[in-house]
């Protein structure tokens, strides 16, 4: 990863100015350069060409605050001498050692990702603002505080739009970025009663241990809930064996369960049969769940996922915690899996989670609607760029 990012920077510093100059020669001068956190050197290129630059942060503002305070050594974080200390950050709940982004933990094996993420803070003075895929109502106090001590933060999310904005719209300009072709599963969901199906997906990167897959499978069998489970073969670069389900599992679950290698997640989350979403708590999946009004079973693995899980469960109260990530270092047993499946699909707790999820769905919809906080922030950003272009 280090070598890939170094190669990207070496070539990018040479080619990006050429691309920008070519656009100017064609009468389409670049008014602003927006980059993601993993290529902070783009700020140097933009500055050298006299072009305004903004950074698009694609995780939560809470995670942004964690990385910022760690990089500047503003508060104590877990260390080799004190690996299990709590972390208290401004306007955030107390984070246990396994609730900070795991790349900041001294035991992380992914030091290259830690370096890649933290590198952006060296150049943070150069972007004139930070665009964030969150919305003000979700992280108001943290956004306000971080805007004062870093660069102005403009919340423009959720960038994931509710399905109803594109369904049956042949003129939709929606650009999809699915990594894989989705399997058919909506017809199967149509056969299920409302709010009875557990949707299970851990994204395209997370690969759980076989033992954990076994425990989830046995938990599903015992819970007797209906489920749609995305179970992909591992990426070749991981050099690990594909997951194997317990013998007789598919025969025993019959039609109450369906396995796919990939799913149309937007449609699944919007489907009335979906009761909850068992997720690794990646930020994209978290925003999709909130925007769709679907409660979650939080099963984080690494990175910012553990911090996202903390907020889903303890702050916005739309989830049940089912695991604590790699820092915890344990296999979640089948009886715990079964108990959480039952709690999320029926009874008073499920109803309370659903009410909270609907509330946050409405808040997300209002944020991106005309006049909403994210709508106004995006409009202000565009107006600012247009004004600069006139100078």
TrEMBL record:
Signal sequence bounds: none
Biochemical pathway: Pigment biosynthesis; anthocyanin biosynthesis
UniProt keyword Signal present: yes
EC numbers for this chain: 2.4.1.298
Catalyzed reactions per annotation: an anthocyanidin 3-O-beta-D-glucoside + UDP-alpha-D-glucose = an anthocyanidin 3,5-di-O-beta-D-glucoside + UDP + 2 H(+)
MF terms in GO: quercetin 3-O-glucosyltransferase activity; quercetin 7-O-glucosyltransferase activity; UDP-D-glucose:delphinidin 3-O-glucosyl-5-O-caffeoylglucoside -O-beta-D-glucosyltransferase activity
Keywords recorded for this protein, A-Z: Glycosyltransferase, Signal, Transferase
PANTHER family, sorted: GLUCOSYL/GLUCURONOSYL TRANSFERASES (PTHR11926), UDP-GLYCOSYLTRANSFERASE 84A1 (PTHR11926:SF986)
Family that this chain belongs to: Belongs to the UDP-glycosyltransferase family.
Its job: Catalyzes the glucosylation at the O-5 position of anthocyanidin 3-glucosides to form anthocyanidin 3,5-di-O-glucosides using UDP-glucose as sugar donor. Anthocyanidin 3,5-di-O-glucosides are molecules that are responsible for pigmentation. Also acts on anthocyanidin 3-O-(6-O-malonylglucoside). Much less active with hydroxycinnamoylglucose derivatives. No activity in the absence of the 3-O-glucoside group.
Name of protein: anthocyanidin 3-O-glucoside 5-O-glucosyltransferase
Organism, scientific name: Handroanthus impetiginosus
